[in-house]
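Ticket #4471: structure export looks truncated?
Reporter: QA, pipeline team
Priority: medium

Steps to reproduce: submit the single chain below to the structure queue and open the exported record.
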Amino acid sequence: MFAKKKQPPIKSLIAVGSHIEGNLKFTDGLRVDGEITGDIRSNSDQPSILVISETATVTGQIFADHVIINGRVNGPVHATQMLELQPKAQIVGDVFYKALEMHQGAVITGLLQPSLQGFDADVKTTLKLAANNK
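Actual output as written to the record:
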């Protein structure tokens, strides 16, 4: 009845105890259990999933279609499709999403911004006030 999109497979893992410094680009799926200092960006040509586990810390921007967070992120998060914040998620930065699921215990220190423009968070939508008639 309701068609659910098939998630891409998680093909890459940054393991506990690993620390990467620098920007990271991935295709399909990525799971982070370690630490990344730098931006994480999916290949925008294909559907993507990014999992930031309970043991992970990311300092930098995140750009992916489906983002699941249960660890710590210091930087803005851009989810073009779905953002899932699990109970131990901690985000210090603005959050841009199309759909949001937030569990009790998740914390965001920043702005929540619903976005229909995908990764282009700089696109400003026009707000017209009814009393203004413009």
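Status: closed, not a bug. The export was complete when the record was re-opened. Leaving a note from the reviewer for reference: The radius of gyration is 16 Å.
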